[in-house]
């Protein structure tokens, strides 16, 4: 049974070979058979789980391989033909390569087609559409990204289960804020908190932590702290406070970072998160202050590596000396 899960790949490779040999019509017949086979096998979870991907996802992996080999047109042809849950995102990746290859007009056409395809699958793929909106924002297409987001928040996200909705609404809030739509970001956070109210049991703490992370990412420390203080699970609450301290550190608000960390006993996880936040924002001295604490000395090599990457060789020597002295 398991071998049938790989059958679509065989048809695809034969079809690609015929296309490369100039026998396009014959190649198309095999590619069509590949898509048909993948669609038939995609729901055969019981027999195909050992392959690690569904047959449809596997075809998209082949598409990416052709993309890496600069066979852009073939990669696009497979991604579109597969009509898989992940096809729109793969098409966005391919559009990026077309754009870099100087084919900006075609790249825009591919993006439009990927959005149209995502719209067809909208009821089933909120996370995928959010990912597309995020990529569009990165490609400096804010209007198209906002349009996608408005469609998602109106028609897609409300159909999700409460836990998935919390995660999706927080992602939407962060993206709205990045696009300058603060009111819509606030509305998305409100929707995330509303979905949170529908949860019970272990998932509540996890969902609360997701919202806390969203707040801290946008510098909404007051809201993050309020939610962290309301968390009943002590370990989840500690982790949430640690994330808040790290976010303060990343923002350069050293005193606030130390205050929050001190309020929960400055555990190792919190201090490590702060240290790495300092490194990420090139606040090397503050990071080194943490790493030189007696129970944190094992992390001192990370400071040396950061100094080395920044071209500060003299500081690397200092880090080595501190490590040797301990």
Write out key terms for the chains shown.
single chain, 326 residues, mainly alpha, 76% helix
Question: Any overview of this molecule?
Answer:
The chain has 326 residues and is mainly alpha-helical. The chain contains 19 helices and no strands. Helix 4 (55-68) packs parallel to helix 6 (87-100). The longest helix is centred in the N-terminal third of the chain and has 18 residues, at 24-41. The N and C termini lie far apart (59 Å). The mean pLDDT is 83.
Sketch the major β-sheet.
none
Order of helices and strands: HHHHHHHHHHHHHHHHHHH
Query: How would you classify the helix and strand content by structural class?
Result: mainly alpha
Average pLDDT works out at: 83
Strand residues, percent: under 5%
What's the assembly state of these chains? single chain
Question: How is the secondary structure organized here?
Answer:
Layout: H1 7-20, H2 24-41, H3 45-48, H4 55-68, H5 72-82, H6 87-100, H7 104-120, H8 126-138, H9 142-156, H10 162-178, H11 182-196, H12 202-217, H13 221-229, H14 234-250, H15 254-263, H16 268-280, H17 284-291, H18 300-309, H19 313-325
Short précis:
By secondary structure, the chain is an all-alpha fold. The chain has helices at about 5-20, 25-40, 45-50, 55-70, 70-80, 85-100, 105-120, 125-140, 140-155, 160-180, 180-195, 200-215, 220-230, 235-250, 255-265, 270-280, 285-290, 300-310, 315-325. The chain starts with 6 loop residues before the first helix and ends with a helix.
């Amino acid at each position: 049974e398991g071998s049938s899960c790989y059958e679509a790949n065989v048809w695809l490779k034969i079809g690609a070979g015929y296309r490369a040999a100039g026998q396009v019509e014959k190649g198309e017949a095999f590619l069509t058979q590949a898509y048909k086979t993948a669609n038939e096998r995609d729901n055969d979870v019981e027999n195909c789980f050992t392959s690690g991907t569904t047959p449809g996802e596997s075809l998209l992996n082949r598409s990416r391989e052709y993309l890496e080999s600069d066979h852009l047109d073939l990669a696009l042809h497979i991604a579109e033909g597969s009509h898989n849950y992940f096809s729109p995102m793969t098409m966005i990746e391919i559009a990026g390569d077309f754009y870099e290859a100087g084919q900006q007009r075609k790249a825009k056409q591919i993006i439009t087609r990927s959005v149209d395809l995502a719209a067809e699958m909208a009821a089933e793929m909120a996370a995928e559409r959010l990912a597309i909106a995020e990529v569009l924002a990165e490609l400096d297409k804010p209007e198209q990204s906002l349009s996608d987001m408005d469609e998602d928040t109106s028609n897609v996200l409300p159909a999700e289960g409460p836990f998935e909705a919390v995660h999706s609404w927080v992602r939407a809030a962060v993206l709205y804020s990045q696009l300058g739509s603060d009111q819509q970001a606030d509305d998305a956070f409100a929707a995330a908190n509303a979905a949170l109210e529908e949860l019970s049991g272990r998932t509540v703490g996890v969902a609360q932590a997701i919202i806390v992370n969203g707040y801290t990412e946008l510098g909404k420390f007051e809201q993050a702290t309020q939610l962290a203080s309301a968390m009943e699970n002590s370990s989840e609450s500690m982790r949430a406070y640690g994330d808040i301290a790290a976010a303060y550190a990343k923002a350069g608000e050293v005193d606030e970072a130390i205050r929050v960390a001190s309020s929960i006993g400055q555990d190792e996880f919190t201090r490590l998160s702060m240290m790495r936040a300092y490194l990420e924002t090139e606040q090397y001295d503050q990071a080194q202050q943490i790493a030189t604490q007696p129970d944190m000395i094992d992390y001192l090599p990370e400071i040396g590596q950061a100094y080395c990457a920044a071209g500060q060789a003299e500081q690397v020597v200092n880090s080595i000396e501190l490590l040797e002295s301990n």
